[in-house]
Amino acid sequence: xxxxxxxxxxxGVSSVSDIDPSKLTITTSDTLKPIPPSxxxxxxxxxxxxxxxxxxxxxxxxxxxxxxxxxxxxxxxASSCFQYATNAFEGMKAYLGPDGExxxxxxxxxxxxxxxxxxxxxxxxxxxxxxxxxxxxxxxxERRWIPTExxxxxxxxxxxxxxxxxxxxxxxxQALLYVICLPTGPFxxxxxxxxxxxxxxxxxxxxxxxxxxxxxxxNYGPGFQPLREATKRGYxxxxxxxGDKITEAGAMNFFAVVERDDGDLDLITPPLDGTILPGxxxxxxxxxxxxxxxxxxxxxxxxxxxxxxxxxxxLTMTYLKRWHDQGKLIETFCVGTAVIVGSVTKIGHDGxxxxxDASKVKHSLTDAFLERLSAIQxxxxxxxxxxxxxxx
Length: 392
Hints:
Layout: E1 3-4, E2 9-11, E3 16-17, E4 25-26, E5 50-57, E6 61-62, E7 66-69, H1 80-84, E8 87-89, E9 92-96, E10 102-105, H2 107-120, H3 128-141, E11 153-162, E12 175-184, E13 195-200, H4 224-232, E14 237-242, E15 245-249, E16 253-259, E17 265-269, H5 280-293, E18 308-312, H6 317-325, E19 329-336, E20 340-349, E21 352-355, H7 365-378, E22 387-389
Parallel strand pairs: 4-7, 13-14, 13-20, 17-18
Antiparallel strand pairs: 1-2, 2-3, 5-6, 5-7, 5-12, 8-11, 9-10, 9-11, 10-22, 11-12, 14-15, 16-17, 16-19, 19-20, 20-21
């Protein structure tokens, strides 16, 4: 395994080159694609004109970065990424700020998580700040693709795949790192962000000691069949359960809002116990809730006197049903880079539904978090340097 030593080299069996943004070459497309109307955009479908590509081999290290026209890549059929799912990726979003300049939302958290995911997949290490510098260059080049309508953005997908062309069951010592950009609208189509979940425990997304806390491709494919079954039954996503314990909802983090006897609210989300992806939006929700309770930055339309107590603790279907029966379960919602914040209005489990009427919530935390996060992301509400300009 190779480790970045911060001076442009990787330390391993021998010293080889790390990612070097000063060696970037840019080849622009001769013919730029037309920008489709924003209302036609579906998540993950439309690609921009260019992509960033860097390759790794054990003798030379990381190649000179290249931004070039978007197009297919050529790989050996025996490549590790095909045979053993040695694939790690990230999900980020770019927005246009009030000054018209592109910006990224808390990108250092994405880079730190990608470093951890790459290490878990035994792929070559890399200088994440160098990669972030290159991502900013790509976003600047593709700025015309960033939608300006509320709820729209430019989705940025950095990906590293193992390219060792051997069926030997071992770590890949060759890799391809690439970044693509996709303009996107709401993750869930339609005017409503309301989500329905089907609790599933006969199959699992992640398990103790597994890879649920890393953003690896291997975590996602096995979830498609349970999702297909859930949609057949009229639900929009799967609520993953380990026995009675809630972990995630689809590929999103899950929150429950419970009213206390004094009128304040408990905001509860499963702990980062190794089965939960440490989401950037998840952490942002926690930070914003704490800022509200501390009186630093009250949330929109939430009384400043109403405290929000964050609990990262085990959350079970038994608890949800009990709170719902007691009239204490006020809201449940999912968060993630793609959805941002989405209200959960129905949860199916053991043949029965927990139904929540969002219209009856006097002060909706779901709406408050969505409004505040959206304003921070586009830079109209400055907060803790979360919105990072792409300009040097």
